[in-house]
Design a protein that fits this description.
By secondary structure, the protein is α/β, with parallel strands linked by helices. It is built from six helices and 41 strands. This is Glucose-1-phosphate thymidylyltransferase.
Length: 403
């Protein structure tokens, strides 16, 4: 059994921490939860994060822990990303010089973990932790900064785990480069598609489609039932049930997100159920070629990254022709349709120009319900009630600028 723990730093990974635990973020080819399940060979039973996420429920994600973490459970820091390998032995795992996961000898009350301040090292009596290969996420932008390396590591290991054979170089698509292309049974690779695996491998999952006249540049992961079409898709991790049209570079789509039209998106993250209108374009490089600054809950900070686009929260919507400057943050549930929004847009904002009004909660819920129904997902009564609470929390969050 695995329980996922968001420490205080993970709870500041906005705009995503408003609506989801870090275990349900995509890091490399997999959700953080999926990665640890493979490494530990165990199922997930729950998560511990900020109290506003107590009602989080999504597909096969485990629920919040409400009482205590049972003895015998693995307790995992969600900012730790182990390399996919066979399950390690031992009761404490180190990545670098920090404890990333512990197997609990005794139950741990929820109160010990609730504020995110507990170091997992304090919860183990193991004197010889086992070192495992991996990395830590220090900031939300590390998901992008480490993406290329993470995909290059993940894809061949996942192919081995899932017993996928590399596509022959003589297959119908045009292939450049020396790395492998893995195509799961049930995927569709149309003729006249191009795979450039000069810089890394490609993995296309079951039910996914790579349409003709698409150039897929590795390392790249295309998730279950997703479609990529008619442009260059490079060094990206595309989750399940996504639509990608137009140029996409070094970006993450958590899942069920739509970039259905032309427009460049680079070094960006699209939350679940995000939708980009036709012609939405992100800038990912400043005219000065200097490091990108980004809004965070502790103020605008220098990321040290030369390339960084936009972080779109869950259910964020961008109108047609939107132009986003380098290092933008669009809060969860925001629906904006002006020419160029400010660099930080608060959750559940609405409008065609700043200062924005509030996206009315019933209108937001109706929009979310209609979008989800198009992917055969129901926004049930419990989910509607939880999103109503999140809406109230989001519009009251004074950390965000209100332009």
């Amino acid at each position: 059994m695995i329980v996922f723990y968001d420490d205080a730093q993970a709870r500041r990974f906005e705009p995503f921490a408003t609506t989801r635990p870090l275990s349900e973020m995509r890091a490399g080819a997999l959700l953080v939860r999926e990665r640890w399940q493979l490494v530990l060979g165990a199922s997930s039973t729950g998560f511990v994060s900020a109290s506003h996420l107590d009602g989080f429920a999504e597909f096969d994600a485990p629920p919040v822990i409400t009482d205590e973490v049972p003895a015998g459970s693995w307790l995992v820091n969600t900012r730790a990303l182990p390399v996919i390998h066979t399950a390690p032995t031992g009761d404490a795992l180190l990545i670098g010089d920090r404890v990333a996961a512990v197997r609990l000898a005794a139950p741990v009350p929820l109160s010990v973990l609730r504020d995110g301040q507990t170091d997992l090292a304090s919860l183990t009596t193991c004197t010889t932790p086992v070192a495992v290969e991996g990395r830590w996420l220090a900031e939300v932008w590390d998901l992008i900064g480490s993406l290329v390396d993470q995909l290059g590591s993940d894809i061949p290991r996942l192919a081995q785990r899932w017993s996928l054979e590399a596509l022959p170089q003589t297959a119908a698509p045009v292939v450049f480069g020396q790395h492998a292309i893995y195509v799961e049974s049930g995927a569709t690779i149309e003729p006249l598609s191009v795979f450039d695996v000069s810089a890394g491998p490609v993995l296309v999952r079951r039910g996914a489609t790579v349409q003709a006249f698409t150039r897929v540049v590795g390392p790249c992961y295309v998730g279950v039932d997703s479609t990529v079409t008619t442009d260059r898709v490079a060094a990206s991790s595309i989750g399940d049930v996504c639509r990608v049209h137009g140029e996409l570079s070094t970006s993450i789509l958590i899942g069920h997100a739509n970039k259905g039209h032309d427009g460049f998106v680079g070094h960006s993250i699209l939350g679940r159920w995000a939708n980009l209108g036709a012609g939405t374009i992100t800038s990912n490089l400043k005219n000065t070629y200097g490091p990108v600054a980004l809004w965070t809950p502790s103020g605008v900070r220098d990321t040290g990254m030369q390339f960084l686009g936009t972080l779109f929260g869950d259910h964020a919507k961008a109108g047609i022709g939107l132009r986003l400057t380098t290092g933008c943050v669009i809060g969860a549930g925001a629906n904006v349709f002006d020419a160029m929004p400010p660099k930080a847009v608060a959750p559940f904002s609405w409008g065609g120009g700043a200062p924005y009004t509030t996206f009315a909660v019933e209108k937001f819920l109706d929009t979310a319900s209609r979008m989800m129904a198009r992917r055969h997902v129901d926004l049930g009564a419990d989910a509607r009630a939880w999103w109503q609470q999140l809406h109230a929390t989001g519009i009251a969050d004074q950390r965000w600028p209100r332009s």
